[in-house]
Structures are given as structure tokens and as C-alpha cells.
Write a structure and sequence with these properties.
single chain, about 90 residues, mainly beta, 6-stranded antiparallel beta sheet, 1 helix, 6 strands, about 5% helix
Length: about 90
């Protein structure tokens, strides 16, 4: 188990065009239609169009994005690994 203190995880969405997130541990990957993140609450996928990461502070765990936001989807790790390890085998 990790001895790190869990980050507080929040999402603020402004008119589905901008979002500020906290509690982000890592950016696992991204393109204009998807952003894949690691949080203490599970893996988080953000879906949309013209998505851009404007800022990611690894020290603070904060992320600012813009683009048309369509969905936020959480997934959890399984005994066989996480979703990304299954996709990229």
C-alpha cells in the first residue's frame, strides 16, 4: 500500500467548454477526443472534441482542460490489471 496521503479529487466544469480538476496523479494519455487520467478514485476518461490540456501541475495534482466536454467516465483496476494494461498488451 502507498503511504501517500490521498489527493482531494474535484471537478469543476464551466459551460462544458472548460474544466479544472484536482486530485490527478498522472496523465496516462490524451488526444483531441479523449484524456486518460489516474486519480485516487480510479482511472478517469474524459471524452469530447477538440480537447486540450492547458496545464498539469504534478506537484499540486491539478489539471486544466478545454474543448467540448461530452463525458467523464471512471473505471477501477481489476485483479488482472487496469483497462489500459488490457488494451495495450
Amino acid at each position: 500500500m502507498s503511504s501517500e496521503k490521498p489527493l482531494i479529487h474535484n471537478i469543476i466544469i464551466e459551460n462544458r467548454k472548460k474544466s479544472t480538476l484536482s486530485g490527478i496523479k498522472d496523465v496516462l494519455g490524451y488526444d483531441a477526443e479523449s484524456i486518460y487520467l489516474l486519480t485516487d478514485m480510479g482511472n478517469l476518461t474524459i471524452k469530447g472534441t477538440d480537447l486540450k490540456i492547458n496545464r498539469f501541475s504534478t506537484n499540486e495534482g491539478e489539471l486544466d482542460i478545454e474543448g467540448l466536454i461530452v463525458a467523464f467516465v471512471y473505471t477501477h483496476e481489476t485483479k488482472n490489471g487496469n483497462l489500459f494494461s488490457k488494451i495495450f498488451k
